[in-house]
Amino acid sequence: MPEAVHAHNSITLLIHKTTHKDLHSMKRIVLLRHGQSLWNLENRFTGWTDVDLTGTGIDEARKAGRLMLDNGFDFRLCYTSYLCRAIHSLNCVLQEMNLEWIEVRKSWRLNEKHYGALQGLDKRETAAKYGEQQVMLWRRSYDTAPAPLSADDPANPRFDPRYADVPESELPLTESLRQTIARTLPYWLCEIMPSLRQAGQILVVAHGNSLRGIIKHLKGISDEDIACLNLPTAVPYVFEFDEGLNPVRDYFLGDDEQIRKALSLIHISEPTRP
After folding, report:
1. 32-200 — its CATH code?
2. Catalytic site residue from 112, 114, 207, 240
């Protein structure tokens, strides 16, 4: 039986050891946050800034791939964002699983929440300036967005060629979680979920907030309680669906104690930086 991990009083996450028998009886989507990025390590707001993985992040992604391989997962379709920390994490996973040949679909709609004018700033320095409570509202609340980038800021995504086919009116200069969900959820409902019926197993490698929005939808987490949910880097989070594509079970895959440790770190505090 799965073991419960209480991330918050009203949010229950599970740890489960999957059997090969399980894998053939249910449709599954695995959500995976990318491995540690350079700005995760430096404790900076990242958002749509295209920051790559650290060596630790590469190792985390490879470990996730080996874990899914050892537990019998066998994907034929993957999704990821336009940002290299997610793309490179997916590449590491597929290398470990000997699945580099399968189809990968990329969408800007799976990008991280846009942190606006906060992007690149040190989180601790920002908290010292504006207060811990305000920073937590920007980071975790449902409705509060940071100050936007200016229209002529070089970081405005309209200047980035990867978004050339996206209408400028849809490209954010900042986002709340609500706004992130508004662009992510239609892609989930209209592209990813319909593909599950034929694919059987799908891997989605994306970002903390784009995945939080999907989890909020799947688990029916309230606008208030979603502030208490964060995801550790590169820990597979499995959702199982019945034949009607209704979610029936969800759990983290991996070692019980390591997952508890990762969850406790991200819920209690940010890691101390040298």
Report:
1. 3.40.50.1240
2. 112
